[in-house]
Amino acid sequence: MERTSPFRTVLGPLFPAVVLFALVFWTTLEIDLRHDSALGQAFQGHLLYCLRSKDDMGTIDWGKSLESVPGVKAFSVSKDGSRIVSGGNLQTIPDPGPNGARFALPDSIIYETEFLSAGTSKVRFTFLSEPLLDPWGSAGLAALLSLLWGLFFLLKGQRSERTPIAGPVGHEGSKELPRKPKDKQPLTENPSTDFPTNGLLLDAQFKILKFGDQTPGFLDLSQESLLNGHLLDLLPDPSLLLAMEKGQKQKLSGVFPKGPGLSVNLEPTPNGFLLVLEPAESSQTPKKP
After folding, report:
1. Is 135 helix (H, G, I), strand (E, B) or coil?
2. Environment class of 234 (CB within 10 Å of its CB; exposed 0-12, middle 13-18, buried 19+)
3. Is 84 helix (H, G, I), strand (E, B) or coil?
4. Same domain, 17 and 130
5. Neighbouring C-beta atoms of residue 191, cutoff 10 Å
6. CB–CB of 131/34 below 8 Å?
7. Were both Cys, which of 67, 77, 136, 275 would link to 200 (CB 3.0–4.6 Å)?
8. What is the distance, to the nearest Å, from the Cα of residue 177 to the centroid of all Cα atoms in its chain?
């Protein structure tokens, strides 16, 4: 049997995991960028109002509000190159870049914008925050689950291919499926003179194998109802089942509801049981066919 290399085993599920990692990373990052862009625009509008109204206390309160937002690491507002309000660790803020929100390695989002406050005064607003959805963690978890799922089904498929099919070997390199045995049909005619005409032969699971010609009449049943039948279909008395469990030869009476006047001679056989039915008032031995 050809052996599959470990490299091919891992490479199969690895490609979908890499694609899923990139897809989840891009999706979560895009959501974070839009969130920080909307947050920055909202605070920019409030800041512009404070600067145009020359409300210094309002600007200070504005900075405290921004610093209290979850995930904000640092922020800075400068006017004509002079910082007027800031917060957090300013060393984490990078050099000025393009306006808008962007991702900064390893795990930060920067929002920058530059606008005019009054006349020709230029104001630059920058803040640094943590991603809301953690793109690295979300993408890594999705890729790991995809890889484990793919390996599980790959190994399961290889194991099923290596499992040999049970059955007789026809010739080298080919195997035949075992033939399904045909169900044994009960015989309505006696194959030998040793089987009584009023007998009922059962296997070890109480399935009816054969019956005598007189048996359906004793039980007030048709032959068709006994074909492929079962002892439990005749609603026997529990005393009969208990006697069969003991496996002893004995005689019982009134064990079948449709034959209350019958006596049953129970005789264990190598592969089941033989029941010989006769009227309770009769003591004669069963007739031979």
Report:
1. helix
2. buried
3. strand
4. yes
5. 8
6. no
7. 275
8. 30
**For the chain, how many residues are written?**
289
Q: Which residue has the tokens 């074909």?
A: 227
**Which of 95, 111, 136 finishes a domain?**
136
Q: What is the DSSP letter of 127?
A: E
First to last CA, the chain: 62
> How many angstroms separate the CA atoms of 128 and 76, rounded?
9
One-letter amino acid for residue 29 of the chain? L
- Residue 166 covered by a domain: no
Q: Could you tell me the residue range of the domain that residue 268 belongs to?
A: 199-279
Amino acid at 36: D
208 and 131, same structural domain?
no
Per-residue pLDDT of 42-98, as tens digits, reads 988 888 888 888 888 988 899 899 888 888 989 999 888 888 898 888 888 888 888
Amino acid making up residue 193: T
pTM of model > 0.70: no
